[in-house]
Amino acid sequence: MNKFQAGYVKFVNNIFGGWFETYFKEAIALQGTDELDENKYRRLTAKKRDLKPMQFKQIMDGAFYLWQRNPMARRMIEIILDFTVGNDLDVNCRIMKKTKDGPQDMNRPEPQELWKKFCEDPVNAVYDDIETFLQDFLIFGELLMPMAVNEANKMPRFGFIDVGEIEKVVRDESGRRIASVFVKSENEAKLREVKILNKDAGEWEGEALYFQYSRTLTKSRGQSFLTELLDWIDALDQFQFNVLEGSALRNAFFYDMTMKGATKEELKQVDVSSPKPGSVRVHNEAVEWDVVSPELNATDTSESMRQFKNMILAGKGFPEHWFADGGNTNLATAEKMAQPVLQMLKRQQKQIKYILKTLATYAIEVQAQGVLNLGKDEYLDIEVVTVDLERSDAAALGAAFTAIVGALSTATDKGWVSDDKAKQVIDTIISRYGVPPDEETVESIMEKNKSNRDATDQNEVDDLYVKTGNNNGDTKKKKQLAEQYA
């Protein structure tokens, strides 16, 4: 430290009450050494949100252990996968064009073909393995997928790195995105840097896709879906095992034999083995036999266990009747509970869709060089389709739609709403179920329907005219039939 630095430190140190000198000396001491790392520094007013490495590893190991051993923890993960991956999972890839009337589908098959080629590649096998990848994402809270391109056929391929090997995460200059991660290297003492893929400059740069579950802006690591429940699920396990052990004691019994007037020596000579079923015990009036059960006065544990379990389920938004406890639920309460659960599942779907959309975008754009040749205002649109949580049974949907149509018909007849406004309501409803609305006006639709009805009626009259044997051109008879048919 030179004289100028020493004087500056002394001046600032006096202003801030003596704490500045310590930090400045530490920073100067690290200059020119390998220990100086910008990523290790932060604002003095900031708080460290990340868990210690040992705690983080314990949580990951604990989540994996519970997923393997605990039925409730495993079922929670399965429910999320059932409502996100499931049998309805599909990825639709299109080329869209921006127009003054809104996005227009160019109906080009290339992007969907490129995605299909990527998925069906024997190394990728996307639809065979994607559920396992997403399952690990929920269990461990992170997913690190290194990407590589086969130079022979330009086929992108993805792999897997155990997130337990990650030692450090580095953010970019904005502090919002992850720039790179450092993982353990098998053959080297130093950590290996893996740069995270991004396309800020218009082209993909980096080595791996990296996703985090349930992170905050002040945390650098994701967390398991089960993180906050680990201790509670483990405690419920212990509680249930204690109940089982207690039930064994409560169901135990023993024989009590009383021998009046017998001495200690005489008691030692008595055969006190348990009587076998159907056997006969012979004794005189001085001997009494009895069966005794212990009275432990233990409280009923069923309600305690239910409260314990509901606390765990409430932490994730699951209703108790989804976990084999429907005795306190009827149809009305079950329907009322559905909306919060659907919102929670939609949020989970959003994260899973983001992973698949990012993977599909990368896979198509890497293969698409010289293939897509996007025109002006054209862009790649990726839609990930999962389980539609808005759909219920067909009877309920039909009844609701009929009631809405009837109400709109009455409203238009009385002049309360216009035909165009009623059509907008109907278009909004049917679009929620994947049916594109008609782009024509109400007048053109009604005119087209009238023309179709008139043509159908005329065809039916002609058929009836021929069937009655009047095929000799008798227009008067045909007119009578038409009027009778109408």
Note down, in words, how this protein is organized.
Helices cover 47% and strands 13% of the residues. By secondary structure, the chain is of the alpha+beta class. It folds into three domains: 3-36, no CATH class; 52-260 and 299-389, no CATH class; 394-485, no CATH class. Residues 29-36 and 38-47 have low confidence and may be disordered. The protein has helices at 3-15, 20-30, 53-69, 71-84, 110-120, 126-140, 230-250, 264-268, 302-316, 331-367, 394-413, 419-431, 442-467, 475-485, and strands at residues 90-97, 104-105, 142-150, 155-158, 166-171, 178-183, 192-195, 208-212, 254-259, 287-292, 378-385. The radius of gyration is 37 Å and the shape is extended. Strand 6 (178-183) and strand 7 form a beta hairpin. The protein has a three-stranded antiparallel sheet, with helices on one face. A three-stranded antiparallel sheet has the order 4-3-8. Strands 5-6-7 form a three-stranded antiparallel sheet, with no helix packed on it. The protein contains 14 helices and eleven strands. The N and C termini lie far apart (106 Å).
Q: How large is the radius of gyration?
A: 37 Å
What's the rounded overall pLDDT mean?
78
Could you state the order of secondary-structure elements as H and E? HHHHEEHHEEEEEEHEHEHHEHHHH
Number of domains: 3
What's the arrangement of secondary structure elements?
Elements: H1 3-15, H2 20-30, H3 53-69, H4 71-84, E1 90-97, E2 104-105, H5 110-120, H6 126-140, E3 142-150, E4 155-158, E5 166-171, E6 178-183, E7 192-195, E8 208-212, H7 230-250, E9 254-259, H8 264-268, E10 287-292, H9 302-316, H10 331-367, E11 378-385, H11 394-413, H12 419-431, H13 442-467, H14 475-485
Antiparallel strand pairs: 1-2, 1-11, 3-4, 3-8, 5-6, 6-7, 9-10
Helix pairs in contact: 3-4, 5-10, 7-9, 11-12, 13-14
